[in-house]
Amino acid sequence: MRVISGIYKGKNLKGFDIDGTRPTMDRVKESLFGTIQTKIPDSTCLDLFAGSGALGIEALSMGAKECYFIDNNIEAIKTLNENTLNIKNAYVVKCDYKKYLKETKLKYDIIFLDPPYKNNNLNKAIKLIEELELLNKNGLIVCEYETEKPISNLELIKEKKYGNKYIKIYKNS
Fold this sequence. Notes:
Layout: H1 26-36, E1 44-48, H2 54-61, E2 66-71, H3 74-83, E3 90-94, H4 97-103, E4 108-113, H5 122-131, E5 135-145, E6 155-162, E7 165-171
Parallel strand pairs: 1-2, 1-4, 2-3, 4-5
Antiparallel strand pairs: 5-7, 6-7
């Protein structure tokens, strides 16, 4: 697993073996980031259910202003701390996603949601993000999922299947 573009291109990332996570394939990342690349520069990002942090690190590599990496798994936090070492404006927080969303004072330009598939937390997270108005105008929610189909009141701007995984991107108009 590696960073595919930007200032950290080629950086190897640990974490493909964290229990409960699955790394995003390079071809999926390339397509995803090709779609959102114009929204990334100077953005504030949230990588919820961060795992290895691959999505948020990719955003920082492509010019995001800052990224908050949230996970509740101690193994993931250790890996996130290693993967974000020497990466500017990467903030790792060990916290339950609901607690973090309810307590954050920030609004985000891009929110990455890639929860463990077995937990069915995708739609709970989307609902909280929308209720708490945590997404800036024109901000994006990027969902990666396998079985739990995301439901949002936001505008769907992309939906694509990659093998047994899907990506949906929503925009706050």
